[in-house]
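Budget justification, computational time. The allocation requested in the original proposal was used primarily to generate structure tokens for proteins on the priority list. As evidence of use, we reproduce two of the resulting records. The first is shown immediately below.
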Amino acid sequence: MTPINDTTSTNNTKDNTMTTKFHGVIPPVVTPLTPNGDLDVASYEKLINRLIGQGVDGLFVLGSTSEVAFFDDEMRGRVLSEAKRIIDGRVPLLAGVIDTETLRVIRHIGQAEEIGVDAVVATAPFYAITGPTEIENHFRALHEATDLPLFVYDIPVCVHVKVPVDLMMKLGREGVIAGCKDSSADDVSFRRLALANRAAGSPLSLFTGHEVVVDGAFMSGTDGVVPGLANVDATSYVAMYKAYREGDWETVRIEQDKAAELMEIAFAPQGVVGPAAGVGAFKTAMQLLGIIETNTMSVPLPTLTGDNVERVAEVLRRVGQLA
């Protein structure tokens, strides 16, 4: 997520000063684990350096792909601190500050500030039933608690509520939020958000969390993509974003098709659901490719073994990633 430091930046902080515009390919970084569930620092370093070497524009740590929901506070701090050390200022670092309710999220923001991240990413509150009023109060409280750019992580499959387009635009126009990572899988809503954002002068930086229809998000005018699949191979997304910026739509289509074919790894496992299938497939592919040491998942998620590993390997062979 390379900062744009010229006058094309339009995001506002609470005092209406200019701030960094985030854009490009920003993978949500997988957290490699040792067989006993500890952070595998050597694999983490190898992964982050590989992603930066492939040309990504930033890194999002402690999101869903990072398995943040399964980490205690100490583990969150270790993962974020190691990411900050390894990145060493080469690209911007976004930190997920995901938790059930506002005061818990504010504590995570404080930790992220101490470590020195460039932006924070928060979902709507969850567990307690909420509506637009509670969601608005939540993000306003988070904004008041930090000077960091604040991004909405819109992921209703996990938090069971969709952040309304009108509320997102209201918060964006007032400088409460800097942007949105849309993982709603609701392409109609995303197009409505993109159109409303453009009509308002683009106060928000918009990102899609899709892997397989990023081309459609680019046609909507998204600022970038946050693809978990990039942990396996970021090159198609980097090439796609470059082609999008150059108006080369045929290359966008070709690179999207490549990424969609590789994404079949997430549909290959059988007998597992949710993160165990998706993130589990990413980790298994990364282990097969020698990017990380193990495909261990966080408790209580099952780690892919046996036939499921072979199913992932078969996809990798089919797309030319594995001999």
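The second record produced under the same allocation is shown here.
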Amino acid sequence: MTVGAGHSHPLYRDGDSPLHRAPAEAKIVCLVLFVLAVVATPREMFWPFGLYAVIILAVWRVARLPLRWILPRMLIEAPFVVLAVLLPFAEGGERVSVAGMHLSVAGLYAAWGIVIKGTLGVAASLTVAATTTSRELPVALSRLRVPALIVSVLTLMIRYVDVLTAEARRMRMARISRGDSPRMLHQVGATAKSVGALFLRSYERGERVYLAMLSRGFDGRVPPLAVGAGCVAAATPRQWTVALLPAAAAVSVAVSAWVLR
């Protein structure tokens, strides 16, 4: 059964760095530990987050990820930044005057925590996404003993998200070729009908794919890819040690922050 049409996804950046060659399961564990360390750090302390940023910049250097490529893709966190900007005005408690505005101290700390922790989390996640192909992710999750059902859903989602995107693009092009303007307010009804039609087509496609998979002996588990056919061998103890160095550094920073608090 073929579940992937390609090796890359929109956030992947082709390269041959040590991080690209590292097993995906080690990178995923490193990401989880790093994010947990960042989240566990007291938001009232500022220096640990500077060290976290240095760790990420060092990883970007090893992975050969240029800032001009990765920084625009971090705009995905913009909605959370907007929410954070409103917190100093909405929170109560002690207030402080900043540029003539009376802002909540608790709100300022909350806004800082959301922005910095969200930014570091997004940066770390994009680092893993930029150095890991779509075929490696399901295999890595299987090696990490993630339930087979979740791995199957993820695998099929990666495979068919491009199919659905292309379908939506064709439907939009068909509307435009018939004189429609999807951006006009009076076309909201037509846009809603298009979304409904896309949902029905996706549901029907999913049923057909599932029946086809069952007829070919699918038992709920995605068959593992052979080494060299889109995925690397399982991580060795040495690879685990090297890959977890950024996470170990982050955990050390978090522990130091709590000790010195």
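A brief technical remark on that second record: DSSP finds eleven helices and two strands in the chain.
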